């Protein structure tokens, strides 16, 4: 995201903020403490912030997230159709409801694979079983990280709803 790191640095310098001061500004919009090293990684190493942090950065600089990531050259969104946003929100909510079905599908597929492993030689079964367990642990880790990010984002939305 080279545009992001360039625009972040430019905006920070325009405000005459140090990286520490930017981290403090971000802390005003998120629940967890925020470090200077993250700001440095974004500006210098091209790291990308999670969505809720991107929103906090946009809020701190009073610019749109589209501007930060290079989807727009306008610093602020001046024409957002609220009806379209509501329809998009409805679609997103409906898509998250599918999560239960996806989890059930995963369980069924894993059970099916485990049944198929039962007919293999003990050595091959043990090897594939181990790989399956490692992958499921990785999947669980990623799922939990996404869930934590989702919770943080919903907290951000709640704060914005109740902000003056």
From TrEMBL:
Q: Where is the HTH cro/C1-type domain?
A: 8-68
Alphabetical keyword list? DNA-binding
Query: Known Pfam families for this protein?
Result: HTH_3
Q: Which SMART domains match?
A: HTH_XRE
| Molecular function GO terms recorded | DNA binding
Domain of life where this protein originates? Bacteria
Please identify the protein, giving its name as recorded: HTH cro/C1-type domain-containing protein
């Amino acid at each position: 995201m080279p545009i992001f790191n360039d625009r972040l640095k430019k905006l920070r310098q325009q405000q005459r903020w140090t990286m520490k001061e930017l981290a403090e500004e971000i802390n005003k919009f998120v629940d967890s403490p925020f470090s200077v090293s993250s700001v440095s990684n974004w500006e210098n190493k091209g790291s990308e912030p999670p969505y809720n942090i991107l929103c906090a950065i946009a809020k701190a600089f009073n610019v749109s997230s589209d501007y930060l990531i290079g989807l727009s050259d306008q610093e602020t969104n001046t024409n957002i159709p609220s009806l379209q946003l509501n329809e998009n929100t409805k679609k997103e909510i409906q898509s998250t409801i599918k999560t239960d079905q996806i989890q059930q599908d995963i369980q069924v597929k894993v059970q099916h694979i485990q049944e198929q492993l039962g007919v293999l030689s003990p050595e091959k079964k043990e090897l594939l079983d181990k790989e399956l367990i490692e992958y499921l642990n990785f999947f669980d880790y990623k799922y939990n990280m996404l869930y934590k990010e989702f919770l943080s984002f919903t907290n951000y939305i709640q704060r914005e709803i109740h902000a003056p």
